[in-house]
Amino acid sequence: MTDTTRSAFPVGTILGYPRIGRRRELKKAVEAFWGGTITADELEAQAAELRGVTRERLAGLGLGRDDASIPESFSFYDQVLDAAVTLGALPSRFAGLADASGHVDLAGYFTIARGEGEHAPLEMTKWFDSNYHYLVPEIGPETSFRLASDRIVAEFEEARAAGFVTRPVIVGPVTFLLLSKPSDEAPEGFRSLSRLADVLPVYQELLARLAAAGAPWVQLDEPALVSESIEDPRSEVLDAVRSAYAALGGAAERPAIFVAAPYGSLDDALPVLAASPVEAIGLDLVRGTVPSGLDAATASALAGKTVVGGVIDGHNIWRGDLEAAFGKLTSLLALSPDVAVSTSTSLLHVPHDVDDEPALSDQLKSWLAFADQKIGQVATLAVGLVDGHEAVQDALRAASAALADRQAAPGVRDTAVRARTAALTESDFSRGDYGDRLAAQEEALGLPFLPTTTIGSFPQTGDIRRARAQLAKGLISEAEYLGLMRDEIKRVVDLQEEIGIDVIVHGEPERNDMVQYFAENLDGFAVTQNGWVQSYGSRCTRPSILWGDVSRPKPITVDWSTYTQSLTEKPVKGMLTGPVTILAWSFVRDDQPLGETARQVALALRDEIGDLEASGIRIVQVDEPALRELLPLKRAAHADYLDWSVGSFRLATAGVRDETQIHTHLCYSEFGVVIDAIRNLDADVTSIEAARSRMEVVHDIQTSGFDHGIGPGVYDIHSPRVPSVAEVTELLETALAAIPGRQLWVNPDCGLKTRGYDETVASLKNILEATRVVREKA
Ligand code: GLN
Ligand code: ZN
Asked: Keyword Iron: yes or no (predicted)?
């Protein structure tokens, strides 16, 4: 292909669209397949139908039918897994799933994602600083690469048959390798990036296939270029970008290449991409800024490419400042005459449609833009780019008016809340000396050596969900609901007493979700009805909308906790979600620094903790599973983040007496990365995931000199497997070998809400038996 035959990049596009469906159709279809009620062919047919409906909708919203502006961003489970199966890059334990050509069928694909029997699934981890989780490919010297799936080509052809020319999307080679981890076979020090040269021919073959199918453009997502890898030196990453795009760009038969770099700014990767033969580069101009101060070579190279300005926030739901977005596009015109408008990231992170939310007030809705509204914004800005500002000024003004209305609306700024945060001093953030606290708590609580507890939730049974649904529909009264929940709490307390657990929880039956529950009970939040967002696979969450100043109209959990404490002599652990996690798992206002919003949430929680303490609750857990997730991708931003995130946790928890024990819970095992943050939380006890990695984390705990209470999980609650007494005993002994016994707590990895009762009871009994064994030996 020569330049003259290339079709122009579309003036307006998006990097990706939610694939779960407006009514979670994909979730339902996939789960039906897993449950055996539909066949693979039926699942394929339903997915094809969903893709068809999606393309029609995107065209209806203003994306072109035949100019490659509609991204082909469907996935049955995860786009990184899709790249792995496309490249045939599977760990050896899954070799049996592939046929002679390396192809894996749908059932096999899901086995890799979810595990089966002896086959542990691929590990799952957070996708950049979002709450989406991807599957981590495993690469070693033994991994063979070949084009093992033509799904990407087939979906393009499917679209074509329906009258569309779409833009295939795949994770780019550098990001694919950077996100991979070494396989079991890989020697110490192996880095996946060393396999780049072996991956590129497969990408070349794929590009050739797409070109043959008639695809004018392909999108290669390279978000890893905006973050700083810990293992891979930046110079090697940049070298990889250079050679990857020289190779792909140099291929004879290929579509035009659009490299998208969502979630941050490209920085020193921009000159490298500019110097490469790719035709279009996508910049995230919500997180990053319009590049300036470019060297002459980069400037002249960029001038020959399409610069795609990601000015519409793909990560949050605000209608935002369209005038400012248009301004950014205008300044891009100084870099290249060929500018297009896009979203900053895939719209995967936002719900489908504001118009699907009849319960939200019209005023709030006028401030919002979900995926479909954002496409409308892209379409507007595209018109502006082509026809000039005047052509779209009404739409830009309407957005500005909505923004002004939002700034002035009651509740967005609450004087009482502002006065409280303004009056905070150093001492509001600190508790007394840890040694004094420990002595006071040992005295007050009288817990045994290796105290046992759980993370908070017990299985959410069908009965519990039904009761909640009936209450929502008005089929049962508030009093009846309360009665049902109290019965459930009593059952859970009795069960814990019977098993012999030392610190009791109430089981969280009244909570639909650990963030939404608090959002529903605090001022400043709204909740959606259909605002589902994919978290991983078929799992979706419905983030709340934090739109205004946050305060607590009345106590939230106190009645539940005191009722629970009335049922037992043992200490009951109050259970709250921390400020960072509430922010991370909500759509948060973007009109003030996150730290300010976090302090408001922290003060509401501080009042709650004070009320719990005053009514006799001696232990309070404040969950912060999202502490790691919000860690900025650029190291330069870490200090500021850790300052406000850790500060808000401390603000929430520092108001209690020495003898009141504060716990926190973190959902991951990457202790080392955030050890200073964890230490600075100054929680008396921290529970952390550890079972899947067989207690690897205790090594980090030991070397870090962490000296507060710590409960490395001994039960992997992500699996239905029941750990044996011997297994838990071994884990506890591993922990004890590294950590002084006085610090050690015994608990599962995380909450039990997704587990069934049978395996939960069996597992907890084994944990208690193992604890007895280890206590006796000590
Ligand atoms: N307390 C919560 C529970 O047990 C914690 C959940 C989490 O860490 N994600 O469910
Ligand atoms: Zn957890």
From this structure: no
